[in-house]
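Data availability excerpt. The first of two example chains:
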Amino acid sequence: MAETIGVNGLRKRYGDVNAVDGVTFSVDEGEFFGILGPNGAGKTTTLEIVEGLRQADEGTVSVLGLPPWPRNPRLLPRIGVQLQASSFFERLTAREQLQTFGSLYGVPAKKADAMLEAVGLADKADVRVEKLSGGQAQRLSIACALVHDPELVFLDEPTAALDPQARRNLWDVLRTINTEGRTIVLTTHYMDEAESLCDRVAIMDAGRILKLGPPAVLVRGLDAPARISIASGVLDAADARQLPGADEADDDGVSLTISTRDPSAVVAAMAAKDALDGVQIRGATLEDVFLELTGREYRA
């Protein structure tokens, strides 16, 4: 499969801070690629360098076979960019907004309605942008990035601050964009989002890539215990620790959670005690991988 993005030895410093510290990765044509990391990990800086919005101190970047810096006019019609903070022209409707963006690339005005339909905003075509909800504004932002039919799309935390329903709706839009053959590079704080959408993810921290691969492969490589939960009070925590196969048990007053590497043995023992009401069994997730690599301390 052809390489759409190639990044090798990328570095960017701000004073004594290494915002990007030797990052290397590639993205294949048609791939949905995610970059994950806590605040200050270097995700956005990396993306801005690849997009040609920022100059690297060291390293090389190739996008669609071309260098993105200095700002490359041959690349601009071939990429679409949705930034963390989107700004729209004031007092324009959603349709007028898209027509204005499209005119910068010589796109016919009639393309605006097709794009509004594609992102589920056809009924909001005549609504001014300041009247759109957060989820609708994010979808319009993505439509602006797609109006000129780019081969490669960059999305920087596109579902930030959206409610769960709006997030899931936007996921459907992104899946459709990807299945149409576009390569997508996504940064996100949401592990479930990356696990659901991305073919591969790179987990960053302190400007470096710590792990890179398909989400399912990274999760299997963690070798984490399963967690079995039931309602608090169904089984005493001390008794739960004595169950065959149980490693640990903790009761927080709402749920009793048992950690185990042999869930079948634990569940069989719980069934013998008639303690399976409301049981939930959860394996490791990409969030567990993320926390194992980056730590659990809060970062503002």
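And the second chain:
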Amino acid sequence: MNIKQKAARSTKVKKQKMALRDQVWGKVDESRLWDRTKNNGFTTLPRTFPLLAQIMDDLADKGKPVFNTYLALWCRVFDESFIEIKSSIQLATESGFASQRAVTTWNGRMSKLAELGFIEVESGPLGEFQYVLIYNPYILIKEYYDKGEVQKGKYLALFTRSQEVGAKDLE
């Protein structure tokens, strides 16, 4: 499908979605909705993120989920897949850690993400995790699946959903 065809399909799908929304809710106050084309402060997320989250947390130590930490990193990254962290306490808070041990807990989750290969980290003058490189999670999950470390049902759910949304990373 070329660019022109994609744009035409996108317009058609949007019209269909808007017609259905209007049918279900009637006139909606547009000022109360989030529109990524009009609002700042958004990021691009894979449509498979809920499935990626489950698998990543399964790969982590039991009772020590890593996905909220990964999500906080993802919400700071741009297309170069690189983040410079200037405040570990801020990232710990964004990851959901608020106790006196927030930074210690966050450090543990960052170490686990690095150990699992989802990120690569380098220390700098502001801390152990000042520089972070984020890798494509699909590639790593496929590698874990090929080694038998991801539940088949969850992997197939991820594969199926990735096919639905047009992601080719698992092929």
